[in-house]
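User
Class, as today's exercise, I want you to study this protein, comparing sequence with structure tokens, and judge whether sequence predicts the tokens.
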Amino acid sequence: MQINQNKLKQRLILLSFIASILLTGLKFFAYYLTSSNAILSDALESIINVIASGFAFYSIYLSSQPKDKNHPYGHGKIEFFSAGFEGALIMIASLFIILEAVKRIMDPAPIQNLAQGSGFILFTIVVNTAIGYKLLSEGKKANSLALVADGRHLMTDSISSLVLIVSVGLILLTGYVWIDSVASLLFGIFLAYNGFKLVSKSVAGLMDASDEHLLEKVVNTLRSHKNPAWIDVHNLRVQQYGSDLHIDCHLTLPYYWELQKVHETIHDLENILKNSHNGETEVFVHADPCLYQCCYFCRIENCPVRQHDFIQDIEWDAANLVKNEKLYTEASIHIQE
């Protein structure tokens, strides 16, 4: 399943790469026909699509490679770098677009054949939207930041091209040529914002920042499959590198259990977490023995060593499970008070 998923990701990003080359050529041809600064800005931004899609293809290929001696956690982090690289290119392109727009506002140039050039831009909008939507949907399924980033970039390109068509229509209706340069300026600012968001997400991933949505998903999985023998889970850490998910946690189990039973219980927990994720999942569980304070919150029936009656459950949520301390120890203090 993982191999097929990696092949699908590579085919999708290759499709994006080839389409970006063809559509960039069409946009430059539209600029040749019209001399429109806004169309030129759109064409220049599409060069970024080509470079970014090429690098994303390499990053997806590399992230699919198995772990090795030098990369014990796999190669998935390259997808964060790919998204950051794409964001940086977008920001650089936006700077050139903004400067060119300001220059054209101060020194307007004639525009021609707008209707004909707009036809080519409309075609690129349809193609970019279709491919971008596919990349976004499949990227979210596969938890691939490189696919999501490239898909979002293509969708952004479609939106900006649509704004461009609107500005061309306004020029045809009003005759005000300056609308072209103003549209290009706004387009550049919009690109800079989206590039900054990509870079920020990339840096967060490279720095192992917590993904609240991903953490909540893991917590919900644990909560919905909670076993009475899982007395306590704490020190939960969740990180994702490409499609690979890494989960660490401490699990409190009855201290009198034999090692074989502890092993089987941990194995069941690992399988539950792995089955909840589409990509490769690596789980490390540290087993802790229970203490007498656990009795207040332990649901194990007919426990031979129980010292206190069960009183209440401890709420399993993201705020509690990430703590590097046993939840029942803190909760038992409040009960005894």
